[in-house]
Known about the structure:
This protein is of the alpha+beta class.
Amino acid sequence: MSPSASPGASPGASPxxxxxxxxxxxxxxxxxxxxxxxxxxxLIDLSSQIEASLSIPPSAQKLLVPxxxxxxxxFASTLLxxxxxxxxxxxxxxxxEIASVSNPRANxxxxxxxxxxxxxxxxxxxxxxxxxxxxxxxxxxxxxPYLPSPERSLRFLARLRDDAGIKSAMRAHKFSVGVxxxxxxxxxxxxxxxxxxxxxxxxxxxxxxxRTDAYDGYRDYKVIRKTLCHELAHNVFGEHDRxxxxxxxxxxxxxxxxxxxxxxxxxxxxxxxxxxxxxEDGGHVDGGGWSGGEFVLxxxxxxxxxxxxxxxxxxxxLMAKAAExxxxxxxxxxxxxxx
Length: 339
């Protein structure tokens, strides 16, 4: 008896397993696909049926199974009866999604500077800065469409792109990145380490780990921004030598110094505080090391520095909140004077 598939069907619409077959439901991109197999079928048979029904090659298939974890190819000869009644999720990109990341410049071409129309610019407008920000930026933002709430990931990526400190460092070092995208945590996690960032071809694509491991939220913004500083340094240096670490530290200091929205300095020398500048899932991040162009948790490197994930409110946060209250009070005073 050969296996059969019912793509897009719901589990309640299929007959129950009989004594000679077993029924497996695979969820892919939010759509359930029901497959029926003989009792002697294995994971290898399931992989072959997925390839035939969904046009996803076995090498690109990853199965997330409760209590069993993430199953990757080559698949073992495990009987499918062990997966019966389990919620199995297929983590795999479609052919078009794989092509968009493999050749990002073809799908997300770099923006070219348009001619500036003849006009008399305002004396206070820095047109050179406008041109530099258009040239030295992340030219495309790409959330993963098959993960939950891709629109929220897009807002997170846009926040990184528009971060005042990041923009200043991009202009200073003339960094131009083709695509800024998120990575799927399940595809970059092992028992020993968790990859936080990747830089492909010195700035063609930068991937960042935005989401928590449970896909129920997003990681701490400043930790992700620090990872981005590291990956930007790979635009210049591929190896983790002294030159690389010096550049990484310089970028981090520039970002902190010029981020006037959260802890930096304005022209008036006052502290500015961004009430939205908080993260999720920051408590479990306690440091790490860099390996092979990837930021990986679970290792250590002298001089690489760590990330304090203990939480709590420190002196800077208290000062920031006090500065915010002073600004609100000054605004109320001006409003009363105007009336």
